[in-house]
Amino acid sequence: MKTKDIRKLAANPRFIPGVYNYCDRWCERCPLSNHCLNHAMEQAEDDGDPAARDLSNRKFWDRLHRKFQGTLEMLHEDARARGIDLEDPKLQAEVKAQERAERRLAAKNRPLTRAAMAYVKAADKWFEAARPIFTAKGIELETLARLEAGNPRAEAAELSEYVEVIRWYQHFIYVKLCRAIESRASEELETDGEMKQFPKDSDGSAKIALIAIDRSISAWAGLREALVDDPDNILDLLAQLAAIRRETGKLFPEARAFVRAGFDETKAVPAGT
Ligand code: SF4
User: Fold this and answer.
1) Which parts of the chain are beta strand (E)?
2) To which H or E segment does residue 233 belong?
3) What is the pTM of this model?
4) Fewer Cβ close by (within 10 Å): the C or N end of the chain?
């Protein structure tokens, strides 16, 4: 999208500012998609070709590239309007120094992201090893359907829902915890008293990571109940997630109370189409 089109779209009052900052990016299921500028921009770019949503397809990356370019252009325009030169070598050196300092500070909390990455790998391993279990379950459900016994359709839908939820949040938890930890480092370095009063990005990011962990735990528990042949391995994954949740809670004790725009606010959503 061109900068002027983005600005025109953004002027629509139906959008909730910043609603996309701490969501789970699951737009198909999002109750606030009609109030989300990010979603509207995606839709404006969508030509209906599934290739544009496929990570392994060039079209997906081209579209992402265009989106970044548009955002970058807007950033440069806004900076120029405020008399800031983003190419200024002094400014760039300051940014680099700040990034180094943030990385050093963030390092102390890396065990949490390492645990989240270990979960990503363990879940992948589990799904790989569970192929025969799913095959056997499929045969069992097909047999039930032929015999018109039980409710195999509902059971299959439930199983697929558990898997979808787990897969959706599997990498998301890691990504959001990385962000929370990096933001925490940047907040710790903040010296401006006024800035310190704002709600913390680290808490918002940790909150959505915690929500993703909660939902993943529920989905794994459901899967464990449905697949009686594999209770122990799932138990290990549940223990991993429970530990990540505990550590996240300790590191970000204010996260659960963070109010996400649109999702946690009680005021009515803006009208409009
Ligand atoms: S707020 Fe909803 S529609 Fe917007 S990016 Fe997040 S999940 Fe998608």
Assistant:
1) none
2) helix 231-251
3) 0.85
4) C
